[in-house]
Amino acid sequence: MPDSSQNGTGSALGKALAVLEVLLDEPAALSLGDIAARTDLPRQTVHRMVKQLEENALLRRDPGGDSYSVGPRMIELGVQALTASTRAAPVRRVLQNLVARLGETCNLGVLARDEVVYVERVECDWPLRIQYGVGSRVPLHATGIGKLLLAYLPARERRRLLRVLPMTQLTDRTITDPDRLEDELAAIRRRGYAANDQENTLGLIGVAVPIRNPKGRVIAGLAVHAPEARLPMVRALEHLSLLNEAAAELESFFAEDLEGLQSLAAEALDGTRQNNTGRMQR
What is d(CA 192, CA 223) in angstroms, rounded to the nearest whole number? Predict the structure, then answer.
């Protein structure tokens, strides 16, 4: 009789993956009992798997309880996976087409702990522009993609992040009050897009729309940004339909190629250390 522990979901790796998949699919933290029920694994086995995953920072125990959610190392691996797939996916082509139509820089960003990481970016041809590389990290509270991703987090996770998020005053328009930011995030959910009106850099505006997975969860943001003198916010908002069309095209690809989506991220993090700040190109 074959030993089920040596193959398929009977293996230790298969059981660990089953636990991770359940937590990745659930926006809220889960107890050991919840995980056992959803994986159909014995509670003792789940306890052992969770302990090992927690020791490797793939899971995180919620403070003051016995519930678990995705850990920091798993988040980093997810970002690495997201960025890596841009090499095989038509992501760059979609962004190139969008830049050709808008005439301004466009980028794709994902959440990595308390920052946004750009996993793909296409620059415009204008001599005056802000340059960031793939892998650059920008703040959540002062960018279009950052506020967008914050807005669509599960409420519990969003509140936790807002408690610890460093809300540095970058310009006189930066929102630094958590209550005011929460109001802005509620407005973003109502209207379906986020705007950055010189909150990160004076003179620079941006508009971001969500990219969702087949289950409707927001997994990334697609944004255009430009100098305000060249693209005032009122005109930028007129391009929302083009941004949403491009986002739908990316969603369509991701729905057909889930493995490709789950692999969108190593190159970005490799370049993070060198590309954390943007520079003005003239």
Answer: 13
**What's the CA angle centered on 181, arms 156 and 144, to 5 degrees?**
100
Task: Note the helical H segments in the chain.
Answer: 12-24, 32-39, 43-55, 72-84, 91-102, 144-151, 155-164, 178-191, 233-236, 240-256, 258-262, 266-272
The residues, ordered by sequence, that sit 6+ positions from 142 with a Cβ below 8 Å of its Cβ are: 168, 170, 171, 174, 175, 196, 199, 200
Please indicate, yes or no, whether residues 182 and 131 belong to a single structural domain of this protein. yes
Q: What is the pLDDT of residues 95-153, one digit of tens each?
A: 999 999 999 999 999 888 788 988 888 888 876 656 666 667 889 999 999 999 999 99
Q: How many whole angstroms separate alpha carbon 206 and alpha carbon 236?
A: 8
Residue 120 near residue 97, CB atoms below 8 Å: no
CATH of the domain at 9: 1.10.10.10
Domain count of the chain?
2
pLDDT of 135 reads 66
Q: Whats the size of the chain, residue-wise?
A: 282
Quick one: 9 and 147 in the same domain? no
Contacts of residue 7, Cβ cutoff 8 Å, sequence gap at least 6:
none
